Automatic annotation (TrEMBL):
All residue ranges annotated as the Major facilitator superfamily (MFS) profile domain in the record: 11-467
InterPro entries according to UniProt: EmrB-like, MFS, MFS_dom, MFS_trans_sf
Pfam families the record matches: MFS_1
Naturally occurring in which organism (per UniProt): Zhenpiania hominis
Lineage: Bacteria, Bacillati, Bacillota, Clostridia, Peptostreptococcales
Localization: Cell membrane
Protein name, per record: Multidrug efflux MFS transporter
Keyword vocabulary terms for this entry: Cell membrane, Membrane, Transmembrane, Transmembrane helix, Transport
Membrane-related topology note: Multi-pass membrane protein
Family: Belongs to the major facilitator superfamily. EmrB family.
GO CC annotations on file: plasma membrane
Length: 468
């Protein structure tokens, strides 16, 4: 495949290094604000439920952007699109640095999400295009280390920065990294993906935006308003109706905006469901953990970051090895092991109390990160390869669909689990007293365990033993 696009081994390596650098900076911003959320909430005088939209709103904007990336990647030259995405991301970072209020900062986060949405989709398509099939598992494992470990290590770094220099420093550092990445990309990037003249389907894009945005916004509002009320129900109804119209339009179109026919392929469908469940739980736990350490246990942002550090190290070790295991043994062993690790970590958090050492919670978080390392990028590689074996030319569509839906699942998970924790803490105050917040956390991880159980069932009963 690499011979077809005329790229040398050295050029391929330089592109890979640049992608890693870019994705480390962009991916860390997806969770860096989880540790910084308490001080941001105080500075802007907003509620935790509102403040969490800096994270879930980021995911929402990415999810809306993802379906568009399939069109952009196949329509515009690789180099121009990649550089534009970096510049948009930097503009969003700059807005957050100077943000005078929550709305201005939220706008900056949306710009970051647009840039990150393009960058993350392009990165996966590029790597799966320029590397041969026998190396894709390994290379995606190393890529997974950047996009997987960066969001996990980000709270640790953010905690130190928040306590020492303020939450704005998070964005200053990200700007510096992205500027280096921009210069590097100008020097090494070429047009490595094929493009075709294709008409932009504005109707499909609008429908996808209402579909993804409506569902996520409706679920997010459940934490602030009663479920039987206009703020949650109206966006949910609009989102569901738009989803049905979008699906119908894609299946009836000769040149679909986002080719949904790929869900007919078993491997891709399973990887899609698995990725959505993984992100649903992963993003929820990523915002719950800092709230547990800081708001419930009363520790500093630095300690909150250090609690997640062992997990970051575990992911750094596991992710590349997971890619090698996938290349040699296939997906079954990784899927089963990862889902069981995830289930065990969530069950462990059900039984912690305010008397439990936070380092036990850190251990459970490390187990969760092992699971993430086993599942995140191998699921993508497995699903996309399942499509490419049957029909070529769908890599961009498969990557866009998988990335958008798992991102939306992450945003929904964040909103739902924060809502569960908040609601249980408030309603159990009379019964549990000072332990009400901890009770809310325990119930939240019980809900995460039930969600993870579905992941285990898929891994054990539906994934074939020989899938390579």
């Amino acid at each position: 495949m690499t011979d077809n696009i005329g790229i040398t081994k050295k050029k391929r390596t330089l592109i890979f290094i640049n992608i890693l650098l870019t994705c480390i900076a962009s991916s860390m911003l997806s969770t860096a604000l989880t540790t910084a959320l308490p001080p941001i909430v105080r500075d802007f005088h907003i509620s935790v439920t509102t403040g969490q939209w800096l994270t879930s709103g980021f995911s929402l904007a990415m999810g809306i952007m993802m379906p568009l990336t399939a069109f952009l990647i196949t329509r515009f030259p690789t180099r121009r699109l990649y550089l534009t995405a970096i510049i948009v991301f930097i503009a969003g970072l700059a807005m957050c640095v100077i943000a005078p209020n929550f709305l201005f900062m939220m706008t900056g986060r949306v710009l970051q999400a647009c840039g990150n949405g393009i960058l993350s989709s392009m990165a996966q398509v590029i790597l799966l295009t320029i590397y041969p099939a026998e190396q894709q598992g390994t290379i995606m494992g190393w890529y997974g280390l950047s996009v997987g470990a960066a969001p996990v290590v980000a709270p640790t770094l953010a905690g130190i920065l928040v306590d020492s220099m303020g939450w704005q420093m998070i964005f200053y550092i990200a700007i510096g990294i992205m500027l280096i990445s921009l210069v590097f990309a100008i020097a090494v990037f070429g047009n490595v993906l094929e493009t075709t003249e294709k008409k932009f389907d504005i109707h499909s894009f609008v429908l996808s935006a209402f579909a993804f945005g409506g569902i996520t916004l409706g679920v997010g509002n459940i934490g602030t308003y009663p479920f039987i009320s206009l703020p949650p129900l109206l966006p949910l109804v609009i989102g569901c109706v738009a989803s049905l119209l979008f699906i119908r339009r894609q299946f009836s179109s000769a040149e679909p905006f986002l080719d949904l026919r790929i869900v007919r392929y078993k491997e891709f469908a399973l990887s899609l469901i698995g990725s959505m469940l993984l992100y649903f739980v992963m993003m929820g736990s990523s915002i719950i953990m800092p709230l547990y350490v800081q708001s419930i246990m009363g520790y500093s942002a630095t300690i909150s970051g250090l609690v997640t550090l062992p997990g970051s190290l575990c992911m750094a070790i596991v992710s590349p090895f997971a890619g090698k295991i996938y290349d040699r043994l296939g997906m079954k062993v990784l899927f089963v092991a990862g889902s069981l690790f995830m289930l065990a970590s969530n069950i462990g958090m059900i039984f912690i109390t305010t008397q439990t050492s936070i380092w036990l919670a850190s251990f459970f978080n490390a187990v969760r990160c092992v699971a993430i390392g086993c599942l995140m990028m191998p699921l993508v590689t497995w699903g996309i390869n399942g499509v490419s074996k049957v029909r070529s030319g769908l890599t961009a569509h498969g990557t866009a669909l998988l990335t958008s839906l798992r991102t939306i699942a992450g945003a929904i998970g964040t909103a739902i689990f924060v809502a569960i924790m908040t609601w249980m803490s408030e309603t159990s105050a009379d019964t549990y007293g000072e332990e009400a917040a901890m009770h809310g956390l325990n119930v939240t991880f019980l809900a995460m365990s039930l969600s993870t159980l579905a992941l285990v069932i898929i891994a054990v009963f539906f994934v074939p033993k020989k899938d390579r």
